[in-house]
């Protein structure tokens, strides 16, 4: 059975691997790799919370006191346009971001706004077969709404 330290090290290793892939992909796309961009990506890649722009800004401003919230917004927008991250639009709150580019879906708690990844092969694009005229479909996402276990417990 893994101990907490091993789990932390595995998580940190996964984050560092994501950052290495991010740097390599950024260079391939011609995107300048700066310490601030790496810090923003690190915050995103190391989080399972699907953080908002404000959350990321709050977490890195101690390391980069001269960075502005506008810079974080623009950087995340650039990452998303270049396909390095995705936006999780909860329809309930500000946009949240996800560095996990593997195909997956999301479930959001309508009470606390927590977002979790959902992997379910039964929800596949090939099974949906949408008939949408005048569009070339580039991708899709499924967002489920519900009440998480913690919020259910608090309400009982």
Structural features, described:
With 156 residues, this protein is an alpha+beta fold. It has two domains: 4-87, Orthogonal Bundle (Arc Repressor Mutant, subunit A); 102-155, Ferric-uptake regulator, C-terminal dimerisarion domain (Dna Ligase, domain 1, 2-Layer Sandwich), CATH 3.30.1490. Helices cover 44% and strands 12% of the residues. It has helices spanning 4-28, 35-45, 53-60, 69-81, 125-128, 149-155, and strands at 86-88, 96-98, 105-109, 115-118, 143-146. The strands form two sheets. The protein has a three-stranded mixed sheet, with no helix packed on it. It has a two-stranded antiparallel ribbon with strand order 1-2. Strand 1 and strand 2 form a beta hairpin. Helix 1 packs across helix 2 (35-45). The longest helix has 25 residues, at 4-28.
List its salient traits:
Dna Ligase, domain 1, 156 residues, two-stranded antiparallel sheet, alpha+beta, 3-stranded mixed sheet, Arc Repressor Mutant, subunit A, 2 domains
How do the strands and helices of this protein lay out in sequence?
Blueprint: H1 4-28, H2 35-45, H3 53-60, H4 69-81, E1 86-88, E2 96-98, E3 105-109, E4 115-118, H5 125-128, E5 143-146, H6 149-155
Parallel strand pairs: 3-5
Antiparallel strand pairs: 1-2, 3-4
Helix pairs in contact: 1-2, 2-3, 3-4
């Amino acid at each position: 059975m893994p101990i907490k330290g091993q789990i932390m090290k595995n998580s940190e290793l996964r984050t560092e691997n994501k950052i290495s892939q991010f740097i390599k992909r950024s260079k391939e796309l011609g995107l300048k790799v700066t310490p601030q961009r790496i810090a923003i990506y690190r915050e995103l890649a190391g989080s399972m919370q699907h953080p908002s722009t404000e959350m990321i800004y709050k977490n890195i401003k101690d390391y980069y006191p001269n960075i502005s919230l506008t810079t974080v917004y623009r950087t995340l927008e650039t990452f998303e346009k270049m396909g390095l991250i995705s936006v999780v639009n909860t329809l309930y709150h500000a946009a949240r971001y996800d560095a996990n580019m593997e195909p997956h879906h999301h479930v959001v708690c309508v009470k606390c706004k927590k977002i979790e990844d959902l992997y379910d092969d039964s929800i596949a694009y090939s099974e949906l077969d949408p008939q949408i005229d005048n569009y070339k479909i580039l991708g899709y996402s499924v967002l489920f709404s519900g009440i998480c276990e913690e919020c259910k417990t608090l309400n009982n």
